[in-house]
Amino acid sequence: CLFSVTAIRGGDRRLSGVVLLLRDVTRLKEVERLKSEFVMAASHELRTPLTSLGMSVGLLLEHAVAGLAERDRELLQAAHEEIQRMKALVDDLLDLSKIEAGRIELEFESVSVATLFDHAKAVFKNQLEMNGVSLTAELDAAAPPVRADANKITWVLTNLISNALRYVGKGGHIALAASVIGPCAHLSVRDDGPGIPPEFQSKIFQKFVQVQGREAGGTGLGLAICKEIVRAHGGAIWVESAPGQGSKFIFTLPLAR
Ligand code: ADP
């Protein structure tokens, strides 16, 4: 049930009444849940044929390439890239719909932020070298552990790092950092890329919002998934950025007791 309260004041500004508006959102929530269930079922069904289609076209590209005309090879390559893109979209949709339908179970444990950073850094070892990008992690050795599902938070970190990697360009720098503020740890991923215009900074956490529209290799769902995962941990996520001055994505996690 959603409610809002409005105060009514007389000419002398004294309170003369209150309007309390109650709105029953049970049906709305049920519609949202059914929508997530439908997206979940559809993306689940699409995943298997897309995987085999991707494998078949991939094999064709590998083995039949010598006998193919240049134009046919280009067409096959384009089809392969689109299949990979569609598969990434379907995977993201499946993840997001599962979270929205309350179908993910978090396996909470007490885990150090250093371990989470190490897991995420390991994923990018080769990619960083290939792209000439440096990645540093700065963290207080005495920082207490957080209460988190290590796999899911590693997913959040890797998504933020892969976005940063996409925007920093050769010679760029990505910095991971963590600090403790009150009962929470603040984890951040900062890059020296192009930054994000202020009017987009809250919107990019919504589904399918991209600053340039259909950005290379992206689905527009990564940050929406990050937000849901962080929210399921009882935390919050936001970005601090200015055009030309890089971006810093920050999220909070509760400390383990
Ligand atoms: P995508 O699959 O497009 O990366 P995300 O939800 O992860 O989807 O990000 C949404 C949009 O936010 C991106 O398309 C991009 O416009 C912007 N964005 C995300 N991370 C960065 C970053 N580090 N620097 C600049 N822009 C970013």
From TrEMBL:
Q: Which UniProt keywords apply?
A: ATP-binding, Cell membrane, Coiled coil, Kinase, Membrane, Nucleotide-binding, Phosphoprotein, Transferase, Transmembrane, Transmembrane helix, Two-component regulatory system
- Record flagged with keyword Nucleotide-binding: yes
Q: Does the keyword DNA repair apply?
A: no
**Origin superkingdom:** Bacteria
Q: Name one GO cellular component term.
A: membrane raft
Query: Could you give a GO molecular-function term held by this entry?
Result: protein kinase activator activity
Specify where it is mainly localized: membrane
Q: Where in the cell is it found?
A: Cell membrane; Membrane raft
| GO BP term, example | osmosensory signaling via phosphorelay pathway
Full protein name? histidine kinase
Q: Which residues of the full protein are shown?
A: 354 to 610 of 610
